[in-house]
Amino acid sequence: MGKLVAFLCLVGGIGVCAASLGLLPEDYVIFEAPRRVVFGLGAVSVLLGFLLLARDHRASDAVATIFLLSLAAFAGWLTFYAPEGTIERYLPFIPSEVTDALARLLFGLGAAATFGIAIWAARRLFR
After folding, report:
1. Residue 22: left (phi > 0), alpha (psi -120 to 50), or beta?
2. d(Cα 85, Cα 96) in Å, to the nearest integer?
3. Which residue has the higher pLDDT, 98 or 35?
4. Are 49 and 13 in contact (CB under 8 A)?
5. How do residues 11-62 score in pLDDT, each as one tens digit?
6. Which residue, 3, 126, 125, is CA-closest to 64?
7. Which pTM does this prediction carry?
8. What's the CA angle centered on 124, arms 118 and 125, to 5 degrees?
């Protein structure tokens, strides 16, 4: 079952990356997010597929560290650099009652926690 999920992540991620690069006909895929964000999501999915297929613990730790750093980078960008109103438009799971400042604070705390976990994983990698 684990290999099936890994191959689904790999194939799905490659498909999403190909769609974001314009390699698929535009009739098949409609984007509501910028293409670079869609490409990043596909790349993270491919990274998760490799993480699930890794047999060596050092390789698995290295891929997990990269994955955690990519999550921290996304949450950090959303916290500090996203234009006003991005959270309301592109993240439907955030309720409308939550203000932009509170959502940025929560994503900032998530970025800090994820960055800390990535540092711990990198420290474990180089032990």
Report:
1. left
2. 11
3. 35
4. yes
5. 999 998 998 898 888 777 777 777 888 898 899 899 889 888 887 777 778 8
6. 125
7. 0.68
8. 90
